[in-house]
Here is the input.
Amino acid sequence: MPSLRLERELWQRGFARVVGVDEVGMAALAGPVVAAACLVVPGCRLIRAVRDSKVLTRQRREELVPVIRERVVRIGIGAASVAEIHRLNIYHASHLAMQRALRQVGDYDHVIVDGRRILDPGFAPGRHTEVVKGDATSFAIAAASIVAKVTRDRLMAKLAQRFPGYGWEHNCGYPTIDHRKALRELGVTPFHRRDFGTVRILLLAAEQTELDLFDSLSV
Here is the structure.
């Protein structure tokens, strides 16, 4: 269960303003990657129901967001678009989303980030700590994971109204069976990540079909 142990250790070292950061949407075939940052200070009280967002139901995550907003000092949300994912790659785009979330938070002393080593120069040495499975151990990171997940799910539900048939309102752009089936039947939208999995395969197949047609007409 996530606790404030890591946050307390940082507070005792003189880092009064600690920010937990997490992102969602790394493995999706469509939509942006979204990050959230939650600032906590000494005296913060744990929310016992907060867990890694992946182990909570959608309804429970929605219920927890307003409670998290009341308990933490500030929340920042950032995103990187599909175009930025294509230009930077998903690894660097996720860090861009995190940096945007941190800028919304404002001043802080130390950042704890879910995941492994971050090489991005935007994260200054000595001012951040990577925590493997941080969303399962740190309250601030787990809270950020919930806020990020709810934010992205709501965004994908809105995009589903513009591009019906892909099931984004429930699969959130991830490569589920119904999403892959819709891709084959309906084609690729501007919000699909063209370098990812099924999307890339379908685009390559379409290009090959066009080349074959061109060759046949040229004979």
The chain is about 50% helix and 15% strand. The radius of gyration is 20 Å.
